[in-house]
């Protein structure tokens, strides 16, 4: 019975080494992000008269989203610091000499990183969408002093895509409208005018029925008139009901999946939305990927400078996020498949880390 007990003690020992640096990493990186936030909004408090409590409330609702970004970095920091300390005191050499493999030593780190990944996913699904939505409302209403758009009958209003709307009647119970005009300002001298007798709305999709599209020439005369029985328009926010205005950052995976299905059924392009959906799963798992690759890189310092592994991990962190940004842009631009756009960096860096760990374990 002593053999299993020895490894239980080892697991607890390694986990204890991880907890301190992980907490320090969370606090440290959170303070860096908060400092950057305050640097941005301090001018609004002093020179623009934005209430301090409004900025403080905005900061509190920004913290959940910041934490999701902080968890992978804190996991990498904890892995590097814990293994660096064990390496410096020759404890890893002693363990491996006694027959403990590197893979077995890494088991509590893997479990810890998976636990953090799970917590990150739950936070990103249950808390972050709501907090992002509230923070956006604070920015629009208080900081930028812009009222959240809402349709009113017999009133012109516009959205952030430089489109102007007019609706004669709105029935929010049945999600229907009557007497619709959409005035689209583009690069041409005169705008495009869309008129429809009636229409319906669902999420960010408007369906207009029995209408006409008017295009104008350079002199302002109607150059082309196109009749349609059914026209679908995607808006960037649900301006009919401000309570349901949601971007992809303000939705959980189920809500975003439903929106993608609606858009696909309507024949609209969904690549960018699919990338964001996959990233709701890939971003939390970055904690595990950082732990996987952080283990072999941290052990570089066994016979060299104690901080060398930590430096490598910092370089890794910035390199990974550059890759993630590039892959996401390629996916949103339809240059690569959405799955690889979201999961590509995790697969590449995770595979690299697994290979390095296997080589070090074999030595």
Fold and architecture overview:
The protein is of the alpha+beta class and 363 residues long. It folds into two domains: 2-142 and 275-362, no CATH class; 149-244, no CATH class. The protein is 61% helix and 15% strand. The chain has helices at 2-47, 52-88, 91-97, 102-126, 128-143, 253-265, 271-298, 308-332, 338-362; strands spanning 157-158, 163-171, 176-184, 192-202, 205-216, 222-234. It has a six-stranded antiparallel β-sheet, with no helix packed on it. The model is unreliable at 1-6 and 240-245 (pLDDT under 50).
Write the layout of secondary structure elements.
Blueprint: H1 2-47, H2 52-88, H3 91-97, H4 102-126, H5 128-143, E1 157-158, E2 163-171, E3 176-184, E4 192-202, E5 205-216, E6 222-234, H6 253-265, H7 271-298, H8 308-332, H9 338-362
Antiparallel strand pairs: 1-2, 2-3, 3-4, 4-5, 5-6
Helix pairs in contact: 1-2, 1-4, 2-4, 2-5, 2-7, 2-8, 4-7, 6-7, 7-8, 7-9, 8-9
Average pLDDT across residues? 80
Tell me the radius of gyration.
Answer: 27 Å
Sheet having the most strands: 6 strands, antiparallel
- Helical stretch tally: 9
Low-confidence segments: 1-6, 240-245
Total domain modules: 2
The sequence of SSEs as H and E is HHHHHEEEEEEHHHH
List keywords for this structure.
363 residues; alpha+beta; 2 domains; 9 helices; 6 strands
Short précis:
With 363 residues, the chain is of the alpha+beta class.
